[in-house]
Amino acid sequence: MTRILLLIGTGSFIGGISRFLVSRFVQSAVLSAFPYGTFIVNILGCFLIGIIYGLTERGNLADAGLRMFLTVGFCGGFTTFSTFTNENLALLRDGNILQFALYSSLSVFIGILATYFGNMITKMF
Hints:
Elements: H1 2-29, H2 36-57, H3 64-78, H4 81-93, H5 97-123
């Protein structure tokens, strides 16, 4: 159990740093009130978790420790649901109703599609 917890913690550490760097890079490239950085990170994280689960479902491609490191650890640290909800609240507070509606609905819808496509890609090979 200790090994799994350390793997998850290490994955979360790497995922969190990766989230910060990717989100900051994307957001600095686009000047907008719309939180593109978090949006891209969440969609990418959904896609990655779809690929990871798809590959591990195909057979014994990863042991439980690696699967936990990548999914619960890295993807959990990389994606940002708490940031997502806070940014939605800020959009609402600032009266950006259209951006709120787009950000919320697109994040959920495209996130589910990205997870699905990530999983389907693994079935093609």
